[in-house]
Design goal:
binds manganese (II) ion; Diaminopimelate Epimerase, Chain A, domain 1; 6-stranded mixed beta sheet; 328 residues; 38% helix; alpha/beta
Length: 328
Protein backbone atom coordinates (compact mmCIF):
# COMPACT_ATOMS: atom_id res chain seq x y z
CA UNK A 1 0.00 0.00 0.00
CA UNK A 2 2.93 2.38 0.69
CA UNK A 3 4.00 2.14 -2.94
CA UNK A 4 0.47 2.98 -4.04
CA UNK A 5 0.24 5.97 -1.68
CA UNK A 6 3.49 7.37 -3.02
CA UNK A 7 2.28 6.97 -6.58
CA UNK A 8 -0.95 8.80 -5.78
CA UNK A 9 0.90 11.71 -4.24
CA UNK A 10 3.09 12.06 -7.35
CA UNK A 11 0.32 11.94 -9.96
CA UNK A 12 -1.11 15.06 -11.58
CA UNK A 13 -4.16 13.59 -13.33
CA UNK A 14 -5.67 10.33 -12.19
CA UNK A 15 -8.27 8.29 -14.08
CA UNK A 16 -10.42 5.89 -12.14
CA UNK A 17 -12.45 3.00 -13.50
CA UNK A 18 -14.04 -0.32 -12.62
CA UNK A 19 -14.58 -3.60 -14.42
CA UNK A 20 -16.98 -4.31 -17.29
CA UNK A 21 -20.50 -5.33 -16.11
CA UNK A 22 -19.77 -3.41 -12.94
CA UNK A 23 -21.42 -4.08 -9.60
CA UNK A 24 -22.21 -1.96 -6.54
CA UNK A 25 -18.80 -2.61 -5.01
CA UNK A 26 -16.75 -1.49 -7.99
CA UNK A 27 -18.87 1.50 -8.86
CA UNK A 28 -19.12 2.63 -5.21
CA UNK A 29 -15.35 2.34 -4.66
CA UNK A 30 -14.52 4.14 -7.90
CA UNK A 31 -16.90 7.04 -7.15
CA UNK A 32 -15.77 7.29 -3.50
CA UNK A 33 -12.17 7.53 -4.58
CA UNK A 34 -13.02 10.14 -7.20
CA UNK A 35 -14.66 12.30 -4.50
CA UNK A 36 -11.64 11.79 -2.25
CA UNK A 37 -9.26 12.95 -5.01
CA UNK A 38 -11.47 15.97 -5.64
CA UNK A 39 -11.43 16.95 -2.00
CA UNK A 40 -7.61 16.71 -2.09
CA UNK A 41 -7.66 19.18 -4.99
CA UNK A 42 -6.29 16.55 -7.37
CA UNK A 43 -7.43 16.33 -10.95
CA UNK A 44 -9.35 13.15 -11.64
CA UNK A 45 -11.67 11.65 -14.21
CA UNK A 46 -14.16 8.83 -14.19
CA UNK A 47 -14.02 6.35 -17.05
CA UNK A 48 -15.96 3.17 -17.66
CA UNK A 49 -15.67 0.59 -20.43
CA UNK A 50 -19.45 0.16 -20.61
CA UNK A 51 -22.44 2.19 -19.36
CA UNK A 52 -23.04 2.05 -15.59
CA UNK A 53 -26.56 0.61 -14.94
CA UNK A 54 -29.21 3.23 -14.04
CA UNK A 55 -29.74 1.35 -10.77
CA UNK A 56 -26.68 3.23 -9.47
CA UNK A 57 -27.82 6.67 -10.62
CA UNK A 58 -28.54 7.69 -7.01
CA UNK A 59 -24.80 7.76 -6.31
CA UNK A 60 -23.12 11.17 -6.39
CA UNK A 61 -20.82 11.38 -9.41
CA UNK A 62 -22.81 8.89 -11.50
CA UNK A 63 -23.42 11.54 -14.19
CA UNK A 64 -19.72 12.32 -14.47
CA UNK A 65 -18.71 8.85 -15.64
CA UNK A 66 -17.54 8.92 -19.27
CA UNK A 67 -17.92 5.74 -21.30
CA UNK A 68 -14.53 5.11 -22.86
CA UNK A 69 -14.21 4.89 -26.62
CA UNK A 70 -10.81 4.83 -28.33
CA UNK A 71 -12.12 7.20 -31.05
CA UNK A 72 -12.64 10.10 -28.67
CA UNK A 73 -10.39 8.89 -25.89
CA UNK A 74 -9.78 11.45 -23.15
CA UNK A 75 -6.40 11.95 -21.51
CA UNK A 76 -5.83 9.34 -18.81
CA UNK A 77 -3.14 11.45 -17.09
CA UNK A 78 -0.33 9.57 -15.41
CA UNK A 79 -2.27 7.00 -13.45
CA UNK A 80 -5.19 4.73 -14.28
CA UNK A 81 -6.69 3.03 -11.23
CA UNK A 82 -9.09 0.16 -11.69
CA UNK A 83 -11.29 -0.91 -8.78
CA UNK A 84 -12.66 -4.37 -7.98
CA UNK A 85 -10.64 -6.30 -10.56
CA UNK A 86 -6.97 -7.11 -11.10
CA UNK A 87 -7.50 -8.54 -14.57
CA UNK A 88 -6.69 -6.00 -17.31
CA UNK A 89 -8.92 -7.92 -19.75
CA UNK A 90 -11.95 -6.73 -17.79
CA UNK A 91 -11.11 -3.07 -18.47
CA UNK A 92 -10.31 -3.44 -22.16
CA UNK A 93 -9.95 -1.56 -24.47
CA UNK A 94 -9.13 1.11 -21.87
CA UNK A 95 -6.16 -0.82 -20.41
CA UNK A 96 -4.37 -1.18 -23.75
CA UNK A 97 -5.10 2.39 -24.71
CA UNK A 98 -3.73 3.73 -21.40
CA UNK A 99 -0.62 1.52 -21.61
CA UNK A 100 0.01 2.96 -25.07
CA UNK A 101 -0.29 6.56 -23.77
CA UNK A 102 1.97 5.81 -20.83
CA UNK A 103 4.68 4.23 -22.95
CA UNK A 104 4.51 7.15 -25.43
CA UNK A 105 5.02 9.73 -22.68
CA UNK A 106 7.33 7.40 -20.72
CA UNK A 107 5.44 7.96 -17.53
CA UNK A 108 2.33 6.60 -15.90
CA UNK A 109 0.92 3.21 -15.11
CA UNK A 110 -2.16 1.10 -14.60
CA UNK A 111 -2.84 0.11 -11.00
CA UNK A 112 -5.46 -2.25 -9.61
CA UNK A 113 -7.13 -1.98 -6.23
CA UNK A 114 -8.90 -5.25 -5.63
CA UNK A 115 -9.83 -8.12 -3.33
CA UNK A 116 -9.98 -10.97 -5.87
CA UNK A 117 -7.17 -13.54 -6.06
CA UNK A 118 -4.76 -13.00 -8.97
CA UNK A 119 -5.52 -15.66 -11.57
CA UNK A 120 -2.90 -18.30 -12.23
CA UNK A 121 -3.34 -18.00 -15.97
CA UNK A 122 -4.39 -14.36 -16.11
CA UNK A 123 -2.42 -11.15 -16.69
CA UNK A 124 -0.25 -9.90 -13.80
CA UNK A 125 -1.69 -6.77 -12.15
CA UNK A 126 1.70 -5.04 -11.73
CA UNK A 127 3.83 -4.24 -8.68
CA UNK A 128 2.09 -1.06 -7.59
CA UNK A 129 -1.31 -2.73 -7.45
CA UNK A 130 -2.88 -3.24 -4.06
CA UNK A 131 -4.54 -6.62 -3.68
CA UNK A 132 -6.02 -7.81 -0.40
CA UNK A 133 -7.99 -11.03 -0.69
CA UNK A 134 -8.93 -10.79 3.01
CA UNK A 135 -11.05 -7.71 2.39
CA UNK A 136 -14.79 -8.38 2.15
CA UNK A 137 -15.19 -5.59 -0.41
CA UNK A 138 -13.10 -3.24 -2.52
CA UNK A 139 -15.02 -0.49 -0.69
CA UNK A 140 -13.35 -1.60 2.55
CA UNK A 141 -9.89 -1.31 0.93
CA UNK A 142 -10.76 2.07 -0.55
CA UNK A 143 -11.79 3.28 2.92
CA UNK A 144 -8.37 2.23 4.30
CA UNK A 145 -6.55 4.01 1.44
CA UNK A 146 -8.55 7.22 1.90
CA UNK A 147 -7.74 7.10 5.63
CA UNK A 148 -4.04 6.50 4.96
CA UNK A 149 -3.95 9.49 2.64
CA UNK A 150 -5.48 11.48 5.53
CA UNK A 151 -8.36 12.64 3.35
CA UNK A 152 -11.31 13.63 5.54
CA UNK A 153 -14.50 11.71 4.78
CA UNK A 154 -17.55 13.60 3.54
CA UNK A 155 -21.14 12.68 2.72
CA UNK A 156 -20.42 11.74 -0.91
CA UNK A 157 -17.47 9.51 -0.01
CA UNK A 158 -19.43 7.92 2.84
CA UNK A 159 -22.50 7.20 0.71
CA UNK A 160 -20.44 5.57 -2.06
CA UNK A 161 -18.32 3.46 0.30
CA UNK A 162 -21.38 2.35 2.24
CA UNK A 163 -22.92 1.20 -1.07
CA UNK A 164 -19.78 -0.80 -1.87
CA UNK A 165 -19.72 -2.52 1.49
CA UNK A 166 -23.38 -3.45 1.75
CA UNK A 167 -23.41 -4.61 -1.86
CA UNK A 168 -20.50 -7.02 -1.65
CA UNK A 169 -21.30 -8.30 1.84
CA UNK A 170 -24.96 -8.62 0.77
CA UNK A 171 -26.02 -6.59 3.82
CA UNK A 172 -23.33 -8.10 6.06
CA UNK A 173 -23.97 -11.75 5.24
CA UNK A 174 -20.50 -12.33 3.73
CA UNK A 175 -17.97 -10.61 5.98
CA UNK A 176 -15.06 -13.10 5.97
CA UNK A 177 -15.06 -13.52 9.75
CA UNK A 178 -13.99 -9.91 10.25
CA UNK A 179 -15.68 -7.05 12.14
CA UNK A 180 -14.21 -4.57 9.64
CA UNK A 181 -17.27 -4.23 7.40
CA UNK A 182 -19.45 -3.35 10.40
CA UNK A 183 -16.87 -1.01 11.92
CA UNK A 184 -16.41 0.93 8.70
CA UNK A 185 -20.17 1.06 8.06
CA UNK A 186 -20.73 2.45 11.57
CA UNK A 187 -18.22 5.22 10.93
CA UNK A 188 -19.72 6.02 7.52
CA UNK A 189 -23.23 6.24 8.99
CA UNK A 190 -22.23 9.37 10.89
CA UNK A 191 -22.60 11.24 7.59
CA UNK A 192 -25.85 12.54 6.23
CA UNK A 193 -27.31 9.87 3.95
CA UNK A 194 -30.11 7.35 4.27
CA UNK A 195 -28.75 3.77 4.53
CA UNK A 196 -32.24 2.24 4.26
CA UNK A 197 -32.71 4.01 0.95
CA UNK A 198 -29.44 2.48 -0.30
CA UNK A 199 -30.55 -1.01 0.80
CA UNK A 200 -33.80 -0.52 -1.08
CA UNK A 201 -32.04 0.74 -4.24
CA UNK A 202 -29.65 -2.22 -4.24
CA UNK A 203 -31.86 -5.08 -3.11
CA UNK A 204 -35.48 -3.97 -3.36
CA UNK A 205 -35.90 -2.87 -6.95
CA UNK A 206 -37.77 -5.88 -8.36
CA UNK A 207 -40.60 -5.60 -10.90
CA UNK A 208 -43.65 -7.89 -11.33
CA UNK A 209 -42.09 -9.20 -14.59
CA UNK A 210 -38.91 -10.09 -12.78
CA UNK A 211 -40.75 -11.91 -10.01
CA UNK A 212 -42.68 -13.91 -12.62
CA UNK A 213 -39.40 -14.73 -14.32
CA UNK A 214 -37.81 -15.76 -11.01
CA UNK A 215 -40.76 -17.98 -10.09
CA UNK A 216 -40.33 -19.87 -13.33
CA UNK A 217 -36.54 -20.01 -13.24
CA UNK A 218 -36.31 -21.18 -9.62
CA UNK A 219 -38.86 -23.95 -10.24
CA UNK A 220 -36.51 -25.46 -12.81
CA UNK A 221 -33.41 -25.83 -10.61
CA UNK A 222 -31.98 -29.36 -10.69
CA UNK A 223 -30.67 -30.72 -7.42
CA UNK A 224 -27.75 -33.12 -7.85
CA UNK A 225 -25.50 -35.12 -5.52
CA UNK A 226 -28.12 -35.40 -2.80
CA UNK A 227 -29.05 -31.70 -3.10
CA UNK A 228 -25.46 -30.58 -2.48
CA UNK A 229 -25.38 -29.12 -5.98
CA UNK A 230 -27.97 -26.78 -7.49
CA UNK A 231 -27.80 -26.58 -11.28
CA UNK A 232 -29.76 -24.29 -13.59
CA UNK A 233 -29.68 -23.50 -17.28
CA UNK A 234 -31.50 -20.44 -18.67
CA UNK A 235 -31.97 -19.92 -22.38
CA UNK A 236 -32.71 -16.84 -24.46
CA UNK A 237 -36.37 -17.96 -24.65
CA UNK A 238 -36.67 -17.96 -20.85
CA UNK A 239 -35.89 -14.25 -20.77
CA UNK A 240 -37.95 -13.38 -23.83
CA UNK A 241 -41.04 -15.21 -22.59
CA UNK A 242 -41.21 -13.07 -19.44
CA UNK A 243 -40.04 -9.88 -21.17
CA UNK A 244 -37.03 -9.39 -18.90
CA UNK A 245 -33.44 -8.51 -19.55
CA UNK A 246 -30.80 -11.25 -18.89
CA UNK A 247 -29.64 -8.90 -16.11
CA UNK A 248 -32.71 -10.22 -14.24
CA UNK A 249 -30.87 -13.49 -13.59
CA UNK A 250 -27.96 -11.86 -11.77
CA UNK A 251 -29.11 -12.75 -8.27
CA UNK A 252 -30.55 -16.17 -9.18
CA UNK A 253 -27.28 -17.91 -8.34
CA UNK A 254 -27.30 -16.36 -4.85
CA UNK A 255 -30.90 -17.48 -4.33
CA UNK A 256 -29.84 -21.03 -5.22
CA UNK A 257 -27.34 -20.84 -2.36
CA UNK A 258 -30.13 -20.13 0.12
CA UNK A 259 -31.16 -23.78 -0.04
CA UNK A 260 -30.00 -25.38 3.22
CA UNK A 261 -28.14 -28.42 1.88
CA UNK A 262 -26.68 -26.82 -1.24
CA UNK A 263 -22.87 -26.52 -1.21
CA UNK A 264 -22.35 -25.46 -4.82
CA UNK A 265 -24.55 -23.56 -7.27
CA UNK A 266 -24.02 -23.52 -11.00
CA UNK A 267 -25.98 -21.12 -13.18
CA UNK A 268 -25.57 -21.16 -16.95
CA UNK A 269 -27.38 -18.49 -18.92
CA UNK A 270 -27.65 -16.81 -22.26
CA UNK A 271 -26.77 -13.11 -22.41
CA UNK A 272 -26.43 -11.00 -25.56
CA UNK A 273 -25.29 -13.88 -27.72
CA UNK A 274 -22.84 -15.13 -25.09
CA UNK A 275 -22.97 -17.80 -22.45
CA UNK A 276 -22.43 -16.60 -18.88
CA UNK A 277 -21.63 -18.94 -16.06
CA UNK A 278 -21.96 -18.03 -12.39
CA UNK A 279 -20.60 -20.27 -9.66
CA UNK A 280 -20.98 -20.12 -5.88
CA UNK A 281 -19.76 -22.28 -3.03
CA UNK A 282 -20.39 -22.22 0.72
CA UNK A 283 -16.67 -22.75 1.34
CA UNK A 284 -15.94 -26.45 1.06
CA UNK A 285 -15.21 -26.46 -2.65
CA UNK A 286 -13.19 -23.89 -4.60
CA UNK A 287 -15.38 -23.09 -7.58
CA UNK A 288 -12.73 -20.72 -8.93
CA UNK A 289 -10.97 -23.80 -10.37
CA UNK A 290 -14.07 -24.65 -12.40
CA UNK A 291 -14.35 -21.02 -13.59
CA UNK A 292 -10.69 -21.07 -14.66
CA UNK A 293 -11.31 -24.25 -16.61
CA UNK A 294 -13.70 -22.15 -18.73
CA UNK A 295 -11.30 -19.21 -18.96
CA UNK A 296 -13.04 -17.21 -16.23
CA UNK A 297 -12.08 -15.89 -12.79
CA UNK A 298 -13.35 -14.37 -9.56
CA UNK A 299 -13.07 -15.36 -5.90
CA UNK A 300 -12.38 -18.87 -4.57
CA UNK A 301 -16.03 -19.30 -3.59
CA UNK A 302 -17.78 -16.94 -6.02
CA UNK A 303 -16.57 -17.07 -9.59
CA UNK A 304 -17.73 -16.96 -13.17
CA UNK A 305 -16.88 -17.17 -16.84
CA UNK A 306 -18.15 -15.80 -20.14
CA UNK A 307 -17.98 -17.93 -23.25
CA UNK A 308 -18.47 -16.65 -26.80
CA UNK A 309 -20.58 -19.62 -27.79
CA UNK A 310 -21.25 -22.74 -25.87
CA UNK A 311 -23.16 -25.96 -26.05
CA UNK A 312 -25.16 -26.42 -22.84
CA UNK A 313 -24.94 -30.22 -23.04
CA UNK A 314 -21.17 -30.04 -23.31
CA UNK A 315 -20.94 -27.56 -20.41
CA UNK A 316 -23.04 -29.78 -18.20
CA UNK A 317 -20.83 -32.73 -18.99
CA UNK A 318 -17.72 -30.74 -18.01
CA UNK A 319 -19.39 -29.48 -14.83
CA UNK A 320 -20.40 -33.01 -13.82
CA UNK A 321 -16.85 -34.24 -14.45
CA UNK A 322 -15.45 -31.45 -12.28
CA UNK A 323 -17.93 -32.27 -9.49
CA UNK A 324 -16.82 -35.88 -9.66
CA UNK A 325 -13.19 -34.80 -9.46
CA UNK A 326 -13.64 -32.63 -6.36
CA UNK A 327 -15.40 -35.58 -4.76
CA UNK A 328 -18.64 -33.96 -3.70
MN1 LIG B 1 -16.01 -6.75 -5.01
Amino acid sequence: MDRLLELLRQSSLISVTTHRDCDGDGVGAMLAFYHALQSMGLKARLLSVDPIPAKYSFLPGYNKVEVFSSQKAPATGDLLIAFDTNDSRRIEPLASWAQQQFSNSQKGQVVFIDHHPVLEKGPHPGHSSFINTQAASTGEMTFEIIKSLKIPLNTSIAQCLYTSIVFDTQLFRFIRKSPRSHQIAAELMQYDFDPTEIHRRLFGDQTPEKLRFLAQALSRIEYLHGSKVAYLELTKQDFEKQGVDPEASRDVVDMMMNVRDVEISILIRHENGKTKISLRSKGRYEVLTLAELWGGGGHLYAAGATLESADYTQLKKQALQWLQKVGI
